[in-house]
Amino acid sequence: MEIGARVRWTSQSQASSKTKEGIIAEVIPAGVRPSPSKWPSLYTGAGPGSARNHESYIVRVGSKVYWPRVSKLVLIDTPVVGQSKPTWVPPTDLDPECLDLCVAMNKLPGVRTTESCCGHADDLSRPYSGPYMIFFMVDSLEALPPLLYYTDACHSGCVGWRVIVYTDCSMAPARFMLEGPKGKQAYQDSKEIAKCIEGYVTNGC
């Protein structure tokens, strides 16, 4: 596998499992540990563990980085110049409220979602709720205008949506997050924005 490839894996923690999907950010040679200066977040707590006797990969998921076991990784797609974009396959633990918009965003040329959360503002059993968020990467800034256009209230009728650019403590390459409001309004808006994007992808307008 190579830098830029998209992978997915499932990790187990106590009695629960979580599926993550991200982009390979670095290839680690056999017998080498990740650089603590480049990937300091891996060295918090218990740290990343010993060097592995095989090639491994640093995977970026939204604003976080991981060093997953290679045996757990599933290759989803490898970008190839001139090749049509593969059909995006939703992870099994994707919030249903994020499905339509994630599917639509992944149909935009040069856009790849990496992580999402509906905010769970209507779930009173959760101690915390937040805004609707979809983290994504772009191949170039030229991929952004259609998404920016249809998340603008002037073109979708949906208010309170914005695209945020950010980095992390390792000064990693810029990443993006689409943020919406909290609760049911965001869920309704996401479907409307998804319809607009689907129409653009299909008809060019």
Task: Write up what this structure looks like.
This protein has 205 residues and is an alpha+beta fold. The protein folds into two domains: 6-77, no CATH class; 96-203, Gyrase A, domain 2. The protein has four helices and nine strands; from the N terminus they run E-E-E-E-E-H-E-E-H-H-E-E-H. A five-stranded antiparallel sheet has the order 4-3-2-1-5, with no helix packed on it. The protein starts with 5 loop residues before the first strand and ends with a helix.
Q: What is the number of domains?
A: 2
Please report which band the strand proportion falls in: under 5%, 5-15%, 15-25%, 25-35%, 35-45% or over 45%. Answer: 25-35%
Q: What name is given to the CATH topology of the largest domain?
A: Gyrase A, domain 2
Q: Which shape, going by the Cα principal axes? A: globular
What order do the strands of the largest sheet run in, or round the barrel if closed? 4-3-2-1-5
Cα separation of the termini: 36 Å
